[in-house]
Structure formats: C-alpha cells, structure tokens
Amino acid sequence: MISLNWKLERDPPPFESNEIKFPEGLVRHILKNHTKKGDKVFDPFAGLGTTMFVAEEMKRIPFGFEAEEKKFQWVAGQMENWTQLIHDDTANIAKYNLPKMDLILTSPPYMPRHHKYNPLFGGDPAKAGYDNYLKRMSQIFAKLPAIMKKATPLIVQVDNLQHGKIFTPLIRDIANCLDKNFIQTGETKVLWQNPKTDYPFTQYLTFKKKTL
What we know:
The structure is a single chain. By secondary structure, the protein is α/β, with parallel strands linked by helices. It has 5 helices and 10 strands, in the order βαβαβαββαβββαββ. It has helices at residues 24-34, 50-57, 69-76, 130-142, 170-177; strands at 2-5, 40-43, 61-65, 85-86, 103-106, 154-158, 161-163, 166-168, 182-196, 199-209. An 8-stranded mixed sheet has the order 1-9-10-6-5-2-3-4, with helices on both faces. Helix 1 packs across helix 2 (50-57). It is globular, with a radius of gyration of 16 Å.
C-alpha cells in the first residue's frame, strides 16, 4: 500500500464530461519506480494523454494509441513527440513497426456491467454490452506481448465500480482478460491524500508476459 496526493494538474478538454481518475502523480510514481530516462513507455489506451505527458516530462519516450478522434487531436496537439501517438485501435498494433517497450502503463476505459454503451467500439450498437467489452479487452491485451521485452512490466490502473446497488468487479474482470497471456505479479492499493469525497483510493495491477 502506498499514499499519494490526489491532484489533477491539467485542465480537461471542453468535450470531456467523464470523471478523470488517472492523476499525474500516480503516473510519476510508477515511472520513477519502473523506468529510467530514455526508456520507452507505451499506453494502449492513451485517452487524455496522462501517461504520454508525464513520460515526456520525465524524459522517457512515450508511445500510445487512441481510437477516439477528439482525444487524439487534443493530446497530439500538446505533445513534443506527437508522431508517436497513433490514431487507431490498439487491436491493430501489428500494422505498425513499434519498438520493444520498457514499460506498458494504462488506465483503460471503464464500463459498468449494466451499461450497453461499449467504449471500446465507440458505442457501436452491434458491439454493445459488458461481455463484448471484456472480449475486446482480452483481444487488445493479447496483442501487447509482441512489443514487450522479456522483463517489461505491464501496469493497469483499474477500479471496481458501484452504481447504486449494482457492483461491477472490474478489477477481477480485467485481470481475467489478461490471464491467457500474462502472469499477475502484484496489486498495489493507493490511498489518496486530500481525496475527492467519493474516491478515497485506487488500485494498480502489475503483470509480466508469459514465456514459452
């Protein structure tokens, strides 16, 4: 268990209405403990670019994918290494000649199990539902070992979700999505200092890839 200050250091873009739960301080802590200057850091769900921005700040080399056009344009417009952010679904990663990464760090899009809107398909009704979300999550994570060195950690920040009486065990379900290709090596609970009233802590899971 660790304790970090809760603070969002960047103003979100005007189109962002979701709660942001991936603060820069958490990324800074993880990069400090798992990488060094010049290391390559990859985020398969770049989102609003927190991993990318902090990696640049700490003199790491950021790479990432973002499928949503608005988020891609907003993040790329503020990056020095903007050409290393790719506007595509990470499921298509084999099309790109990416180097081997030293760390993969992400906070994937969350989906409550009772929702129909699947953020991994931009809400496509043909791909609606939690089962399709988890299936796609498994497919995306299965692509990542190809760009990992033998000792590259994969770190996923994820929270369980509570909506009224409906509980989504997202930590367990995301871990199960990785089970075929990765071995979980750790789970770290992060207690927030000066937290938001509804968000006292988070977790991140650490994995290594399975080897033949």
